[in-house]
Structures are given as structure tokens and as C-alpha cells.
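[09:14] KT: can someone run the structure on this one? pasting the chain below
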Amino acid sequence: MNHEAVNREAYERPTTVSLYTDGPIQLAELRILVRHKDAYWGKRLLDIGCGGGRTTEFLRHCTDDYFGIDYSRRMVECCLSRFPDAQCKQCDVRDMKCFEEDSFDCVVFSNNGLDSLGHEDRLAGLREINRVLVDGGLFVFSTHNKNYSHAVTRPRLVLTWDPLRQAREVFRYFRHCRNHVRNRRFEEFHDDYWILNDRAHSYQLLTYYIEQSKQVEQLAAVGLEALEIYGARGELIPLDGADRLSSWLYYVARKVGSSA
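[09:31] RB: done, C-alpha cells below
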């Protein structure tokens, strides 16, 4: 089993699908959607990693040209069962040949979906996003922050005086340890990025972490210009900063082209 197989297995589990079904728009998302309304309202909008429909519920009302994709079959099935009128299909961001060049005015990739990919696959996904965007089109996404002070985590037993709760905590701890022992061999530590088996979904995932300046460089390498970065609480932070308080960050980028 490799990096991709570990994550795909986790995202196809019904328990995981349920976590990406409901939930409010996050503070950073809300601020970006308000600030950049003209980039997507009434325009061609691609929602990558739409999951079970958390973002679909809101974004499909912003335009008649909404399209949602996810590489998890179960996620797409869940989304369509909730919103049968929405355009939604199974598709991999690394290979979006079903869409022509310049197909969308705005692309959104929320919930750190890009972080499920390994390094080379991540770059392939960014190149595809750049391809389907029009010149000057907006790309909004979130990604885990390598500078976060608690980025590296390991299973920890929580102690409590409540016997029933303690029994649950012991069971949870051993489940976390089992998953971490299985997946930690896939961790990678590079100067530019890390791939960590963090606490997400009980240590069942491998997650990509990158610091701000390197993410800006990564975007530029595929033809995308970083415009803004937002912390998890919706605060605007410097492009060249090193935020240590946000576990993930939201980026707003623009495709650099002749009409930008």
C-alpha cells in the first residue's frame, strides 16, 4: 500500500464521508467569498473535492454554471443524493481531461483536499487547475501549514477520573496507535514540505504540510500568482510570513495570463 492507497481507502469509508457532508462555511472561506464575489458569482465555478456536499449546498446557488468533482465515489454519491439537481461527478484533479482549457472562471479546493496527494501528484493537480482556469481566473484553496507549532503529533492517552470515559479513551488510544504504526512509515520530511501521519481521522491519513513562502513559489511555478493568505480564523496574513497559530491556511491565487 502506498501514499495514495492509504488516503483513498480512508476517504471511501462511510464514516469519513459523513464528516464531509454537513458543516458551516468556515470563517476564512466566508471572508474570501465576500471579498471576491465578483470572481465567481454567476460565472463558471469548479468545486474540487466537493465531498458529501458541504460546499455544494452554498456554491450551487451562486451560479448556474456550478460543477463539483471528487475522487471518492462514495463522496460523489452522497453529494448527488442530497443535491440531485447539482452537476457533480467523480474526477481526479491530476487528470481533468473531461474539461477543456479555460473552462472555469473560478476554482475552489477546500478542506485541504490538495493535501491528500503526494508531492509530484500535487504539482500535477496544480498544473491541471491552471489549465482549466481562464487567464485572470481565481483559485481558492486551503492547505496545511508546515510552520504550525503543533504540526507533528503522535497518539496520546487522555486520562480522566470518569471510568466510562477512560475506557473509551483507552480504546481510542489503541486505535490511534494501530493506525499510526501502520502509516507512519510513509512519512516524509523535506526542507520544502512534510508528509505527516497526523491525528486527522484517527491517524488514518497522510497529509501534506508546506510553509507559506514555499507554497507561494509552488503556485508561481505552475503559472498562479498568490494574492492573499488567510489564517484559520479568517485573518489576513502576510504572503512571506510564518504563521505558527493556524494548522491550515487559505490561499487566494490568480492565473497569470495575457488578460490578467
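[09:33] KT: thanks! The first strand starts at residue 45 and ends at 48.
[09:34] RB: yep, looked fine to me
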